[in-house]
Give the backbone structure.
Amino acid sequence: MGADKIEQAFPLVRELRGDLTLEAWRDYARSYLALKPIDEGHRGIVVAEHAGYLRGLLSYDVLPELFGRKTMAVRDVIVPALPAGQPAARSLLEELFDICQAHRCGSIRIDLTKGMEWLAEEWSDPAGRVFRLPVTCFFSGSRETAPQVPAPRRQQRPRLVSLNP
């Protein structure tokens, strides 16, 4: 997508980091959207959009591990709190599953920052019992996994828009 989505996402990103400038956000987003050689992995930014408004955002990197396995590392997660953010949160997670499948990832690691802790209950499934693959959430600066999620609740998903070219 074009630069208009990068700028449209700026107010949402400021919810995570209030001191971020538009210029710094543009530079960061463009670095995530730039094409990389295949051997350097895949990265991107995913947003959930509903009724013309961005409702959630995250950035991810597909990282190689030993023995040819891959893990998706997710950070910069921004979703409004419950209950308004729950459909966007569910949509973002479903999109992560689709990206993982395309890149043959075996697991997802999500680092949640202050204010996004509520997502740990929605997204944690380190044993892969509820979701299609293990999803482990960590709180910023912690090595302890967040609590596991109860069975998923189905709601209407907002439309997803990838900021990748």
